[in-house]
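fwd from M.: "can u put these together and see what the complex looks like"

so here's what she sent:
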Amino acid sequence: MSRLIVVSNRVAPTQEGRPAAGGLAIGVLDALKQTGGVWFGWSGETVAQPQPPAIDVQGKVTYATVGLAKRDYDHYYRGFSNATLWPALHYRTDLLRYDRQEYAGYLRVNQQFARDLVPMLKDDDVIWVHDYHLIPLAEALREAGVRNPIGFFLHIPFPAPEVFRAVPPHAELAKALMAYDLIGFQTDSDVQAFRDYVTREAMGTSADVRAADGRPVVRLTAYGRTAKAAAYPIGIYPDAIAQAAEQFSTRKAVTEFAQSMQGRKLIMSVDRLDYSKGLAERFLAFENLLQASPHWQRRVSLVQIAPPTRSDVQTYQRIRQNLERETGRINGRFAELDWSPIRYLNRKYDRNLLMALFRIAQVGLVTPLRDGMNLVAKEYVAAQDPSDPGVLVLSQFAGAAEQMPGALVVNPFDMLQMSEAIERALSMPLAERQARYRDMMGPLRKNDLSVWRDSFLDDLRAIEAETIAHARVKRAASSSHGRRDQVKA
Ligand code: GDG
């Protein structure tokens, strides 16, 4: 099978023995190990002088990473990726900040990545590019003469066309997306939103086709380019998570924490510290529960783990300050000598410890204002004890809501509804909890991480096969024309 080339903003930890990495890393690494290939991306470092990629070969996989000049980091990463695209694609046009220089930096880094990648490519490689940082990469590779099949997967939402139009270079970005052969989205709604943009804004056309196994795919034509688009909801490995959660739940750190709860119920939330995750709204809903149903005071705690990210982007500093203030206020209002309603932990924890904490929590509270998928929702369910599972309270605006029928689905903008759902979850009888857990575990197993990865790569390789077949037909047709012309002459 042809080699796989993965390109993502960051490359997962390469040394064996490092703590188990999250979703994308596991899914992609498995595929890379099977076919062999290259994982290319930013090293996470800023450098004084750009250097050629650092190469680290481990078995069949080559890790190639490049540093970014400080100015490129500011423009490409902090600027256009995370201060323009991230808020806009999460419907936060109020937080969108646009600067032409930053957009130029975004294009410049993508061109630089393309230049660095080209010498590593072989003719029959298949290229899989990940996420919003790298939308223009296929266009840059095509300009450099690359003819390989190139697929793109967007991990975050694609918004309604009206919202996407708020990004000043929206048309250039949509055109750049159309340079990919296959564009993958998390949900059907994202595919529909992109289709709407292409047909209404770009005056393109669309047609419903099917993948080899019958899944719906859309063929889009615009800007003189044709691409396919489909939904590939990212999954997890639920049984591996269940196993880790069970094993780690007997570790000292977990049993001591469970003891410190003194029989009180536990609500768990885990999110990168990001305004898309709806943390402040969630805290207010929990406060409302304590106020409206005072019998829950001293009987339940919310543990919010929120490792900081992008802490040098200004809006992220503001959200951190706001949450610290809110936690202090709510705890100040309700805490007793031996109980605080909210434990707000602003740091990263070991992955297996998190899964064990999910297992002992009666409620998983996952209420983003927008989220491409949200893997925490899936992980929380997978980590449960099937004989006594907890309840997932899930935002309707997480991509995961389309696939998790057993969750209590809430609108995170409706504080009272969230508060009522938390109370319902805390009081839910065992039989209902078990039924809801079963309703979710089936689909989680059926659509695990390998299904996400394999269906995307199968579709991308099928496009490659179609293109080769098409080129052969064209060659055969033109040579038979040639022969006919000779006969006529
Ligand atoms: C983007 C999209 C989409 C969190 N805290 C810790 C920790 N985590 C792990 C979680 C989970 C992952 O990080 C977060 O994934 P999410 O899906 O919840 O959210 P994003 O980071 O925003 O990811 C999202 C995803 O891409 C995949 O396509 O689902 O919509 O926004 O696995 O468990 N892991 C460790 N310590 C922590 O403190 N070890």
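replying to her w this: The pocket of GDP-alpha-D-glucose is lined by residues 22-24, 155-156, 234, 270, 272, 305, 307, 348-351, 354, 371-376, 379 (CB under 6 Å).
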